[in-house]
């Protein structure tokens, strides 16, 4: 038979991209007429591999580009030559990138150099400040003029793209695929709780306590911000009714500060990064998420958990607008105050703890697969 299938190359490099793309890859693979190839750059090796195993995503191509202490210059240069070679060998009909990493930005650029059309999953997020988050804000802006399929998670994101004069016909509000990942993982956990049994000892140790789930890894918070966060966590954990569950990001800027400032304390579990089913269980166990992560701002509201966001700006304003997320920055005093308020004031807590899904209904990946397929003239 001749070549009837259109070849789609999905490119990604970090943990959040893998989490947000595994449902998309699955949906594309279920779509007739598409040949789906996956390429990981392994921009962040360890955390990426944790997802690949769990999501059953064995990449077709693995560039393994992680270097210790890599600069953005070297990373970008190696990504460009590496991904360019892959595209020359694979000759895809379309390249799909997600979000705002160097891999997404360079993947789009390498495709553009070959005049291969690009789809951008999670398009249109904007904080309005090119240095927050840095360099992600500019990474995702660079993808915009290249892509011809923009999968905006929300109407706010679509509007941001229209303001940049992106052709409205190219913008599709699909919801965020992280909600698909979350639903799929919760369903798997309901069938088989042993997938997250690694948290049993912590659940037992913290039984009866009010758990705060903490994640932090943003570059803007390295240095003084991290120290302020550590100091706030120490004070919050002084409350005998409260416990902190803290999967620590492996970046040395995070680990070294937390090691130095938090030591061994009975109310703080500083643990290795969790694979996705374990993290989803951790979110379900907690009362409040205290984070600077992008993805957690989307997942926590879906589970009805208030999110205190340790950042000055967010490119995900929907949670703040809905009242389920609050921007609190990294001032130590403020972090303690806002957390204590949620712990002590039932009304304040209930006002934020409404299950709310501004980010999607769990069917984003199917919509994306249908649009990709239709783009080849093979959809219905
Ligand atoms: N996550 C995880 N294990 C952890 C911490 C986070 O699986 O120990 C997941 C989390 O559920 C979310 C994603 O990783 O989907 C967020 O990644 P990260 O905070 O590294 O990046 P960001 O979302 O800020 O780009």
Describe the structure.
The protein is an alpha/beta fold and 380 residues long. It has 2 domains: 188 residues, 3-Layer(aba) Sandwich (Rossmann fold), CATH 3.40.50.2000; 158 residues, Rossmann fold (3-Layer(aba) Sandwich), CATH 3.40.50. It is 46% helix and 15% strand. It is built from 16 helices and 13 strands. A 7-stranded parallel β-sheet has the order 3-2-1-4-5-6-7, with helices on both faces. Strands 10-9-8-11-12-13 form a 6-stranded parallel β-sheet, sandwiched between helices. Helix 12 links the parallel strand 11 and strand 12. Helix 1 crosses helix 16, helix 3 packs across helix 4 and helix 4 runs parallel beside helix 5. The protein starts with 5 loop residues before the first strand and ends in a 5-residue tail after the last helix. The model has no long low-confidence stretch (mean pLDDT 95). The structure holds uridine-5'-diphosphate (UDP). The site of uridine-5'-diphosphate has 16 residues, from helix 1, helix 11 and helix 12. One of its GO terms (molecular function) is UDP-N-acetylglucosamine 2-epimerase activity.
User: How many alpha or pi helices?
Assistant: 16
Mean pLDDT: 95
Helix content: 40-55%
CATH T-level fold name of the largest domain: Rossmann fold
Q: Report the CATH superfamily of the largest domain.
A: Glycogen Phosphorylase B
Bound molecules: uridine-5'-diphosphate
Q: Span from first to last CA?
A: 22 Å
Task: Assess the beta-strand content as a share of residues.
Answer: 15-25%
Largest sheet: 7 strands, parallel
User: What is the C-level CATH assignment of the largest domain?
Assistant: Alpha Beta
Low-confidence stretches: none
Overall geometry comes to: globular
The tally of structural domains comes to: 2
Q: Structural class, judged by helices and strands? A: alpha/beta
Q: Widest sheet: strand order?
A: 3-2-1-4-5-6-7
**Helix and strand succession?**
EHEHEHEHEHEHEHHEHEHEHEHEHEHHH
**Known CATH architecture of the largest domain:** 3-Layer(aba) Sandwich
**How many E strands?**
13
Protein name: UDP-N-acetylglucosamine 2-epimerase (non-hydrolyzing)
Family: Belongs to the UDP-N-acetylglucosamine 2-epimerase family.
Catalytic activity: UDP-N-acetyl-alpha-D-glucosamine = UDP-N-acetyl-alpha-D-mannosamine
Enzyme class: isomerase
